[in-house]
Design goal:
globular; HNH endonuclease; single chain; 233 residues; 2 domains
Length: 233
């Protein structure tokens, strides 16, 4: 396979002048600002590090993309359920703008819309606290890998696995092994009671949770678990 001559960048409109000053060019093959792929081997990418999709970062190692399923007790406990609609809309739209409407992981765009909002959570297995780290924009294909449970119930595992292998530069078998490890981890975590930390929202935006956040999230949790039961049983 011929190596692409260009590497796409995730550049917000406001940062385009800076990226161009640092050497980025408009690449017709991607329809966005990009750098020569050769720059990834000689260090010239470093001033543009903040704009490089994860899969192209020379300072990172694969896997760049893998399932990160939310523990079952926390299904439905997401920002869409916990925040006022206008606050969630502001957060997700800012995430789209910040990535230049290109996937932060693979650098591509989705088939139906460029990117979707991905809530990046960290699970602390010592304290049983799931903490929100940020919200970013990723394409629907990468989102399908991240939310493997939802992808499984819709019967789209094969396509997600192929995308995961391409992004990570790994074999299908290696990716399948990685998926199984993440799902085993999910099963273990789903047997425990978890606390949720969304203080990132208050620190970053100053937004409070909606008054009925707990009840709204609990209702969404029930809807999701019932839908999953129907899919599997």
């Amino acid at each position: 396979m011929t190596r692409p001559a260009w590497t796409p960048l995730c550049v917000p409109h406001s940062a385009a002048p800076l990226a161009i000053h640092l050497g980025a060019k408009q690449a017709e093959c991607y329809g966005c600002l990009a750098i020569p792929a050769s720059w990834l081997t000689d260090g010239r990418w470093q001033p543009l590090k903040r704009f490089l999709p994860t899969r192209f970062r020379p300072d990172l190692s694969t896997p760049f993309l893998q399932p990160r399923p939310v523990p079952l007790p926390l299904w439905g406990w997401n920002l869409r359920s916990l925040l006022a609609r206008e606050h969630w809309d502001q957060i997700r739209r800012e995430a789209y703008r910040d990535c230049g409407y290109r996937c932060r992981i693979c650098g591509m765009i989705g088939a139906d819309w460029p990117v979707e909002a991905d809530e990046v959570w960290a699970c602390d297995d010592r304290t049983n606290v799931q903490s929100l780290e940020t919200v970013t924009g990723i394409c629907s294909a990468c989102h399908g890998v991240r939310h493997w449970g939802r992808t499984s119930t819709s019967g789209k595992q094969a396509a997600a696995l192929r995308h995961m292998a391409a992004v990570n530069g790994m074999s299908m078998q290696a990716c399948q092994t990685l998926v199984q490890a993440r799902m085993d981890e999910w099963l273990n975590r789903s047997e425990r009671v978890w606390d949720l930390d969304i203080s990132w929202v208050a620190r970053t935006y100053g937004f409070p949770s909606r008054p009925d956040a707990a009840a709204n999230a609990a209702a969404e949790h029930e809807n999701l678990t019932r839908a999953a039961e129907r899919s599997f049983f």
